[in-house]
């Protein structure tokens, strides 16, 4: 069965975790289980994009606090909150904090699977875009101060000669810096360098 995406289940109830693991694994998802939100948050920076399915009432960091922390880190992971009977006010608060949806226990298996599929489908483009932006920012960070200056000159439309005059160095030296910039930014053309700079927020479109 094809992998439909990653799902991170957070629930302090072992029977519930096992049940969700069986259900979601059978439906074609790659499932990782967490007993506490703290365990999930500890490894979050290294996790691949996926949908978080979390109980709202848990000891320590509950579902609401988890949402607050994910929101503070600008996480792109979609979050579905599971609530017990009578927890609608908590569910509404969860939605306000960024949960994509909530479902009350007990719930129908097909409904949960459909919600996860929709959540991943809607959030994946933004998550991929975020990853690309971070990658470009990391490339910019590898530039030396002089290379950064040369790149700024290039994306401003200045010729090698004009950039050289601005910094009182030879055009030949600028050519070397320009080559370094193109290599480090993984740009094959000046137009591609401009697009990367716009993506990194160095040039407003």
TrEMBL record:
- What GO terms are given for molecular function? DNA binding
The Gene Ontology biological process terms listed for this entry are: phosphorelay signal transduction system; regulation of DNA-templated transcription
The reply to whether RNA-binding figures as a keyword in the UniProt entry is no
One family name in Pfam for this protein: GerE
Please list the residue ranges annotated as the HTH luxR-type domain.
136-201
InterPro entries assigned to the protein according to its UniProt record, in alphabetical order: CheY-like_superfamily, Sig_transdc_resp-reg_C-effctor, Sig_transdc_resp-reg_receiver, Tscrpt_reg_LuxR_C, WH-like_DNA-bd_sf
Q: Which residues carry this modification: 4-aspartylphosphate?
A: 55
Name this protein carries in UniProt: Response regulator transcription factor FixJ
User: Is DNA-binding given among the entry's keywords?
Assistant: yes
Tell me the first and last residues of the signal peptide. none
Q: Please give the PANTHER family that the UniProt record associates with this protein.
A: DNA-BINDING TRANSCRIPTIONAL ACTIVATOR DEVR_DOSR (PTHR44688)
Q: Where in the numbering of this chain does the Response regulatory domain appear?
A: 6-120
């Amino acid at each position: 069965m094809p992998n439909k995406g990653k799902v991170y289940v957070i629930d302090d109830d072992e029977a519930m975790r096992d049940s969700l693991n069986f259900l979601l694994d059978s439906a074609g998802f790659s499932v990782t289980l967490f007993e506490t939100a703290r365990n999930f948050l500890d490894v979050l920076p290294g996790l691949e994009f996926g949908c978080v399915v979390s109980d709202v009432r848990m000891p320590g960091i509950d579902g609401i606090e988890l949402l607050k922390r994910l929101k503070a880190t600008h996480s792109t992971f979609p979050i579905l909150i599971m609530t017990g009977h009578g927890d609608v006010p908590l569910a509404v608060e969860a939605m306000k904090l960024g949960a994509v949806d909530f479902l009350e226990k007990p719930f129908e298996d097909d409904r949960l699977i459909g919600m996860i599929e929709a959540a991943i489908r809607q959030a994946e483009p933004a998550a991929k875009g975020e990853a690309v932006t971070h990658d470009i920012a990391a490339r910019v960070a590898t530039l030396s101060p002089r290379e950064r200056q040369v790149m700024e000159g290039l994306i401003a439309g200045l010729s090698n000669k004009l950039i050289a005059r601005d910094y009182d160095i030879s055009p030949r030296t600028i050519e070397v810096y320009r080559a370094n910039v193109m290599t480090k930014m993984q740009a094959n053309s000046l137009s591609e360098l401009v697009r990367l700079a716009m993506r990194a927020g160095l040039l407003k479109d």
